[in-house]
User: Fold this.
Amino acid sequence: MNPPPLNHRSLLPLSLITLLVVAPHFARLDPRISLVFMAVILLRVTSLYRPRLRLGRWLLLGITLASAVLILSLYPLLMGLPAKVALLSLMMGLKLMECRRRRDLYVVVFLGYFTLITHFLFDQGMLQVAYCGGDGDRAQRPVDRGRPCRVP
Assistant:
């Protein structure tokens, strides 16, 4: 028996939290990667309200391959922290695009925690700690006790 699919009450806050988690990296990443990430999040939020805009598996595969080509063209050897953070950020956004079941939601939340940790590879200031501490608490709410997150 398959578990029921997620509704937009769970996915909308998760999409916005994913954007908040990756947003501090936008200053460090290439603008093209930031734009692709924001386009993926915008497409996900739009597809929540207009289900006919939901991407099929083949189109999602094409977007994933195009994202991989973009990252490899910008960082040919995937050397250095910015290349790895760019790959993690784009793949987290693409995982959110294919999020259909609760287990996919858990994967996105744990990728979000991992992305929060990567902020400290670049900056260990008190503002960064405050931002990541507050954001991490919000990232856990969509999966607490199996209830969807309510945005205050």
